[in-house]
Input
Amino acid sequence: PHSALAMVTCSSALSAVTGLLSLSAILFFFGGHHGFPFKPSPEKVSVEVVVAHYKEDLAWIPETKALHPEVNFTVYSKGPETPEGAIRLKNVGRESHTFLYHIVENYDNLADWTVFTQGAKPTWGFRALDSQSGHMCSGVSFDDYIEPFRNGKDFMEIFTVTLRLPEVFHSDRLDMIFFDPKANGTSCPADGEKGWGSWWFDAGHPVHWMQDAQPNAPGPIEFYNQYIASNGTYTKMSLAYANGGRFAASKERLHAHPKEFYQRIIEQLEWNVSPIQGYYMEAMWYDLFHPEDLQAENGAICSALEVPTSAMSHRDMVAEARKRVKDLKLLSTGYITGAVTKYE
Output
């Protein structure tokens, strides 16, 4: 699973390919999520941060801009008050609509490297139903996202949750539940499957209850097959993703599909202020931009615990994780995030 894309070995074939493809195209087709050993000179790379705003305090933006004057910030606001300099959008589709809108509207003029983030200040932790949650994992800073082609990769996402479908089970990364000042901020837990909490189920999670509240919307697997996997026929899958939907990508990676492909997804998002499809997209960004490496086909990016036939409650999962972390000394501290709050 997730093996590197095969490299062309015939020198004559490679010469022909390089004569037809630009260096950026080679980066895209041969790079994959494993990255390509090429990093453009920093002074030649344009970087843009796309911010999806509603009511969040944006004071962090000028602070970040002062440290990175070369970075361009574009704020799209759907809130009752539009901040100065922000682009006003109709309040539909959550942040997923905002991100895809930016890609479609700027498709031919995308920055070399684009960071997509919600409006809250990027800080550690997650609290359910709190729009000020920063959604950052232990050991990760926003500077890591701003740095283009970090570690030679053309895409950056810190996977903090794994979603199992069709069961709608979740497994949370331990250094997202608990703050670990010694964490090194890897895309997947450094401890492999030991870095994940047990699978949990909560009937109050949006991906579950909204299927009843919005019966005309497609289910998560149907949506994935139609709009992510291009007429896929998958019946089950485990999707690792970033809580909060933060990621960064190269222009070439964002060009994985034509504009029309993204426009079809936008049409699925713009019918409601908070469509269930917006929650689906949070878990599907990696697969959207990696059609050659679908998790439904190759398995989840990160090694996780074996999926059980039934899952515990979210509260029980946190209690068990607290005990496991303490007993095994998996993390350097046991400070609990507000993630113990159930969805209501």
In short: The first helix runs from residue 11 to 20.
